[in-house]
Amino acid sequence: MTYGNHVQLKVYQQLEDHIIPVTYEDLEQKAKAHLAKEPYYYVAASAGAEVTARNNNRAFEKWEIVPRMLCDTSKRDLSVELFGKRYQYPIMCAPVGVQSIIHPEGELASSRGASEMGVSYITSTASTYSLEKIAQESNGDKWFQLYWSSDREIAASMVKRAEAAGYSAIVITLDTPMMAWREKDIEHKYLPFLQGKGIGNYLEDPVFLSRLERSPKEDMTSAIMLWAKIFGNPALTWKDLEYIRSQTDLPILLKGILHPEDAKLALEHGVDGIIVSNHGGRQVDGAITSIDALPEICEVVQDQIPILLDSGIRRGADIIKALALGAKAVLVGRPYMYGLALAGEEGVKQVLRNLLADFDLTMALSGKSKVSEIHKDLLRRAQV
Ligand SMILES: Cc1cc2nc3c(=O)[nH]c(=O)nc-3n(C[C@H](O)[C@H](O)[C@H](O)COP(=O)(O)O)c2cc1C
């Protein structure tokens, strides 16, 4: 399938009514001007001094693309295969929770926008709307991201609901058994979950509801308090993976892997995929960047299972570099959040369309006409 020229054409046709800035930097600034400070910083800010967040994108500059010439890139194929399925693009919407703080339609609009663009959407456990409602908005492929509750029957119930609602993979996020020290949110005394936002999956979960004496309608405070108690599970170990494995036949990916030894353990425990991620710098400040962590992890995994990557993907060249270093696909987080904040579904679509067109052009101009042709020989270390 060739999407490239088609996507570019659409970008140019729509330049006149472009309602969001094209550059990531301007997009972020416009979202900042548009939103109240609490929700803006909830999205934009990260853990601690935000060193990892700042480095996430800069680390891509350590690599340079060395383009090839005269390769006939007139027809291009941006598709990739994952778990026996063809995906139109090697780009997905990262799981992002509590999107209603920046737009009333939240995850519903993002799910629609992604589906319209042929981009897969990963629904977060911490969505404001339930996974079933989000699934209804999309005709496309979607995955479900699990925050593994300390009440494991709730975790299992969510996985089963996701399978029933048509999700095709489960992403277990390992780096957030508790939320990190996020200075801006603490300064603003802002945790949207305590206002009942971002807990839609719990409020419609039969097991969660069975743990309450009164329904959330009658007593929302108790529901929120229960959520706070069971949200994360810092006691989890590798052995616990067996339990979730026994609940579903869907492929299971682990998100938040940064250490090669953990990649080894993931393989030993039979998971189906890995997402190299530092959660956009929102968990361990000072953590290694994803793109720096990727080569060693690929070395360990040796193509036995697919590796995906997120944290710091902003432009087409970032995607080319991640794929060249061994990722099969990338996830993008904040960019589509700013599109959502500024223009709902249309904003999400424009952000994704720009990213796809940039990726397609950069791939073609680097002399590659298929994602499968992008390898490490296209890169060299920057000489700075
Ligand atoms: C506001 C916000 C909320 C997020 N919520 C979740 C979540 O619920 N589950 C999850 O696994 N990751 C979550 N993430 C992390 C993203 O999935 C992804 O790892 C990160 O945004 C990638 O970095 P980027 O924003 O630099 O693209 C969140 C990120 C942001 C910015």
List keywords for this structure.
globular, single chain, alpha/beta, 12 strands, binds flavin mononucleotide, two-stranded antiparallel ribbon, 8-stranded parallel β-barrel, 16 helices, 42% helix, 384 residues
Give an account of the 3D structure.
- By secondary structure, the protein is α/β, with parallel strands linked by helices.
- 42% of the residues lie in helices and 12% in strands.
- It is built from 16 helices and twelve strands.
- The longest helix is centred in the C-terminal third of the chain and has 32 residues.
- The relative contact order is 0.20.
- The protein binds flavin mononucleotide (FMN).
What kind of sheet is the major sheet?
A: 8 strands, parallel, barrel
Quote the average pLDDT.
96
Number of helices: 16
* Adjacency order of strands in the biggest sheet: 4-5-6-7-8-9-10-11
Could you write a compact summary of the structure shown?
The protein has helices at about 5-15, 25-35, 35-45, 50-60, 105-115, 130-135, 150-165, 185, 200-205, 205-210, 220-230, 240-245, 260-270, 290-300, 315-325, 335-365; strands at about 65, 80, 85, 90-95, 120-125, 140-145, 170-175, 250-255, 275, 305-310, 330, 380. It is α/β, with parallel strands linked by helices.
What's the topology here?
Elements: H1 4-13, H2 24-34, H3 37-44, H4 51-58, E1 63-65, E2 80-82, E3 85-87, E4 91-93, H5 106-117, E5 120-123, H6 131-136, E6 142-146, H7 152-164, E7 170-173, H8 183-187, H9 200-203, H10 206-210, H11 220-230, H12 241-245, E8 252-257, H13 260-268, E9 273-276, H14 290-301, E10 307-309, H15 316-324, E11 329-332, H16 334-365, E12 379-381
Parallel strand pairs: 4-5, 4-11, 5-6, 6-7, 7-8, 8-9, 9-10, 10-11
Antiparallel strand pairs: 1-12, 2-3
Helix pairs in contact: 1-16, 2-16, 5-16, 13-14, 15-16
The chain binds flavin mononucleotide.
